Amino acid sequence: MRSVPEVRAAVAGVRRSGGRVGFVPTMGALHTGHLSLIQRAAADSDFVVVSVFVNPTQFNDAADLAAYPRDEERDVALAAKAGAHVVFTPAVEDVYPDGFATTVRIEGTLTETFEGAARGPEHFWGVATVVSKLFAMVGPDAAYFGQKDAQQCAVVKRLVTDLNLPVEIVVCPTVREDDGLAMSSRNVHLRGSDRERAVALVEALDAAEAAVRSGMTDAGELREIVTKLMAARDLTADYVAIADADTMAPLERVDRRTVIAVAGPVGPVRLIDNIVIDPPPV
Ligand code: AMP
């Protein structure tokens, strides 16, 4: 479906018969990570809407936007197989009509640290604006997001609370390749040695997790473990975040449910990854 009225009519029909509507927003180039969200939505709901919209306002780099992989036919086939009833592909002109002047700005550390520092807070304002619009267009009971984008999950939860949006946010685990690399639409641009080096992100995160399990809690020491393991593969992180898993507030020590997140360039792409750790009780 390409138009908002079409999607609204389909969802209204489901609602009239008491059905539950699940929603999975994506930018397309679907991989097994996206499909896991669709499968989870299908398990929880009577009707599943998947949106495919490459949102220009969340890209801070025109070349990244231009290079973003697109294959609508393949996406529709994969989404349907995973349990989607509708794939919604709005046009850029319909999402951002002439005269468009409204932005959802989430202020403070949530959008200014880590990914917000690396890409600019405009990235998350773009995400918050398009997610608000998609929720208004589709009207789902629940929406499914991937833990892979940890800060995005925190931003969306804040948005839903702050604007009283009647949507339940469900965060699903990160799906990985056999060697641990987090699945991403951008991985198709990784070739040869870059593909091998990309595993350094998850290796570094795993080493940090092992260090926490053996009693290390100091954020500086943990950051050093991650930085060194990435450097061993000739990679430099944009940041190594040690933060409260729910709020993304930076932590001095791991004393609660903590996200360790890392981002950095690998060859032609910029990758992100994270793990969540519940520290052993002291
Ligand atoms: P994107 O198309 O990259 O905007 O991603 C759409 C949704 O899929 C977001 O909620 C992502 O967090 C989620 N996602 C992307 N990659 C993965 C993955 N490897 N595992 C789980 N969810 C993912």
What can be said about this structure in brief?
The chain has 282 residues and is an alpha/beta fold.
Describe the 3D structure.
The strands form two sheets. The protein has a five-stranded parallel β-sheet with strand order 3-2-1-4-5, sandwiched between helices. It starts with a helix and ends in a 5-residue tail after the last strand. The protein is α/β, with parallel strands linked by helices and 282 residues long. 43% of the residues lie in helices and 17% in strands. Adenosine monophosphate (AMP) is lined by residues 26-27, 33-34, 36-37, 145-146, 148-149, 172, 174-175, 182-185.
Key phrases:
17% strand, binds adenosine monophosphate, 282 residues, 12 helices, alpha/beta, three-stranded antiparallel sheet, five-stranded parallel sheet
Strand segment tally? 8
The rough form would be described as globular
Intertermini distance: 53 Å
What does the radius of gyration come to?
19 Å
Enumerate the distinct ligands: adenosine monophosphate
Strand composition percent: 15-25%
The helix content, as a percent range, equals 40-55%
For the biggest β-sheet, the strand order reads 3-2-1-4-5
Largest sheet: 5 strands, parallel
Helix count?
12
Decide which structural class fits the backbone. alpha/beta
- Uncertain parts: none
Mean of residue pLDDT values: 96
Order of helices and strands: HEHEHHEHHHHEHEHHHEEE
What's the helix and strand layout?
Elements: H1 4-16, E1 21-26, H2 32-44, E2 47-52, H3 62-67, H4 72-82, E3 86-88, H5 92-95, H6 109-112, H7 115-119, H8 122-138, E4 142-146, H9 150-162, E5 168-172, H10 192-197, H11 200-213, H12 219-232, E6 239-244, E7 258-266, E8 269-277
Parallel strand pairs: 1-2, 1-4, 2-3, 4-5
Antiparallel strand pairs: 6-7, 7-8
Helix pairs in contact: 8-9, 11-12
The chain binds adenosine monophosphate.
